[in-house]
């Protein structure tokens, strides 16, 4: 941008263009995951590292919830905490992700301990949590707009993994089904908020920058997985080492 103020429709088009160029469905590691070109050990590494992202999302959302100025906004954002943490033990997205790691043959206590994370995974996810905590409410909400693009990647992931991997089934992938409705609901709200409140050139630049940042977080997590687990001999000390070939 060069300081011009975009209309809401132009701003939305610019946001969608960022997703079309930068969303992590384009990453080679993700293409390999969906196309059945990963080993079970590599899929385990993906699920284990992605768990850290999943389990930190509620903390990210709680930090934003505490800053929202109205009950209406807080009620809207509070739904995200329930989606991920559930409203009872064993419910919610984090619990369903653990069913995925269980189904892939990972020890649950090991997954929850976070001992096997790649260093880059922790750095990337922590940077996202800190971004939402420290930036403006508008930028924090805009950073969630990767959800605009998630239904497509979820559909590809579920169909591709069921087709190509005999070590997964629909129960293993139960995390993803609710996200097909939750993500569009959440992104509709976030997009409406951004369209209404990003009125100045500076605000619009912050919104676009927030989405680019979030795409970069997701992309860098896959970069780390690709580097460590696709080319032999690059797993860093202390990180998960697959026992499956």
TrEMBL record:
Its EC number is 1.3.3.11. InterPro entries: Haem_Oase-like_multi-hlx, PqqC, PqqC-like, Thiaminase-2/PQQC. Belongs to the PqqC family. One of its GO terms (molecular function) is pyrroloquinoline-quinone synthase activity. One of its GO terms (biological process) is pyrroloquinoline quinone biosynthetic process. Pathway: Cofactor biosynthesis; pyrroloquinoline quinone biosynthesis. The gene is pqqC. Ring cyclization and eight-electron oxidation of 3a-(2-amino-2-carboxyethyl)-4,5-dioxo-4,5,6,7,8,9-hexahydroquinoline-7,9-dicarboxylic-acid to PQQ. Gene3D superfamilies: Heme oxygenase-like (1.20.910.10). This is Pyrroloquinoline-quinone synthase. The keyword Oxidoreductase applies. SUPFAM superfamilies: Heme oxygenase-like. Pfam families: TENA_THI-4. Residues 13-223 form the Thiaminase-2/PQQC domain. NCBIfam families: PQQ_syn_pqqC. The keyword Oxidoreductase applies. It catalyses: 6-(2-amino-2-carboxyethyl)-7,8-dioxo-1,2,3,4,7,8-hexahydroquinoline-2,4-dicarboxylate + 3 O2 = pyrroloquinoline quinone + 2 H2O2 + 2 H2O + H(+). It comes from the Bacteria. Keywords: Oxidoreductase, PQQ biosynthesis.
């Amino acid at each position: 941008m060069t300081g011009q103020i975009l209309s809401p429709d132009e701003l939305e088009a610019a946001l969608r263009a960022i997703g079309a160029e930068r969303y992590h469905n384009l990453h080679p590691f993700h293409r390999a995951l969906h196309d059945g070109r990963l080993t079970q050990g590599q899929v385990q590494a993906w699920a284990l590292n992605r768990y850290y992202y999943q389990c930190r999302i509620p903390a990210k959302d709680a930090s934003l919830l505490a800053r929202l100025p109205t009950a209406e906004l807080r009620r809207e954002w509070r739904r995200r905490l329930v989606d991920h943490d559930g409203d009872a033990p064993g419910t919610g997205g984090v619990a369903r992700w653990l069913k995925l790691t269980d189904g892939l043959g990972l020890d649950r206590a090991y997954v929850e301990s976070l001992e096997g994370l790649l260093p880059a995974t922790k750095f990337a996810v922590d940077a996202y949590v800190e971004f939402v905590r420290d930036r403006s409410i508008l930028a924090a909400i805009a950073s969630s707009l990767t959800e605009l693009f998630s239904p497509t990647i979820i559909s590809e992931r579920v169909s591709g993994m069921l087709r190509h991997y005999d070590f997964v089934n629909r129960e293993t992938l139960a995390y993803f089904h609710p996200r097909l409705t939750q993500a569009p609901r959440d992104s509709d709200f976030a997009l409406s908020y951004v369209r209404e409140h990003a009125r100045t050139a500076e605000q619009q630049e912050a919104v676009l920058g927030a989405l680019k940042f979030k795409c970069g977080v997701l992309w860098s997590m896959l970069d780390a997985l690709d580097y460590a687990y696709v080319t032999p001999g690059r797993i860093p000390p202390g990180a998960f080492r697959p026992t499956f070939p």
